[in-house]
Write a structure and sequence with these properties.
By secondary structure, the chain is of the alpha+beta class. It contains five helices and five strands; from the N terminus they run ααααβββαββ. About 50% of the residues lie in helices and about 20% in strands. A hairpin with a 3-residue loop joins strand 2 and strand 3. Helix 4 packs antiparallel against helix 5. The C terminus is likely disordered.
């Protein structure tokens, strides 16, 4: 259908004369031809917008999820890249720590070496001319990675002798820590003192010796 200029002008005049308040969809057949075209175009545009909304909304959600994943992956990449950059230094530090741990383990007595450790403490007391009143073992205390062996020590002698005795214990090849010192005169005399202390030595727990938790809930 081809419209000339006069017909276009006529249709435009009819469109301008339309009373939009009195329009009824039931009378759409009598609407001006130009109004019908405009309404069809608007309906088509609305349909396209609705279709695009549903299509784009799904892709928008996928795009948002991809953005979140991108941020997460970038963060993981930066973290792993940083770890990879410091990996040689971390390996050197780990080797150093393992070496230190090995040296510390050699300072811890084994279960079979506890009697010889008691002999070394007794020898230190004898070498410093002290009178041994008590050197005895307390019950062991098991920790997650080591076993603690407390010892009660009570000796008697001069101040300088006791000081040398304490230094000799600290310099033993096996690790012995000293706690709860008590120093008091014997029989009210100041020239002879009694030293009481709690010494602790430690034994490393091997994996084969670690207590098993299996069946702990079984009555």
């Amino acid at each position: 259908m081809t419209l000339n200029r006069e017909q276009w002008a006529l249709e435009w005049q009819r469109l301008r004369e339309v009373d939009w308040r009195d329009m009824d969809v039931k009378e759409a057949g009598s609407w001006p031809w130009l109004l019908k075209v405009v309404c069809c175009c608007l309906a088509l545009l609305a349909a396209l917008c609705v279709m695009m909304w549903f299509v784009v909304s799904e892709q928008r959600e996928a795009y948002t999820a991809a953005q979140r994943q991108e941020v997460r992956l970038l963060s993981e990449y930066r973290s792993k890249a940083s770890q990879a950059a410091f990996l040689p230094e971390m390996r050197e530090q780990l080797a150093t720590l393992e070496g230190q741990m090995g040296r510390l383990r050699t300072m811890l007595p084994t279960d079979a070496e506890i009697p010889s450790l008691l002999d070394s403490i007794s020898d230190a007391a004898v070498d410093n001319r002290l009178t041994i009143e008590t050197i005895r073992l307390r019950p062991t205390q098991t920790q997650p990675h080591y076993i603690e062996q407390p010892l009660d020590i009570q000796v008697r002698g001069g101040y300088h002798q006791l000081a040398r005795f304490s230094a000799d214990i600290a310099s033993l090849p096996r690790m012995v820590t000293q706690h709860d010192f008590t120093l008091e005169p014997v029989d009210g005399r100041g020239d002879t003192l009694r030293l009481s202390l709690l010494a602790r030595t430690y034994r490393y727990v091997e994996e084969s010796e670690a207590p098993s938790t299996e069946g702990a809930d079984t009555p």
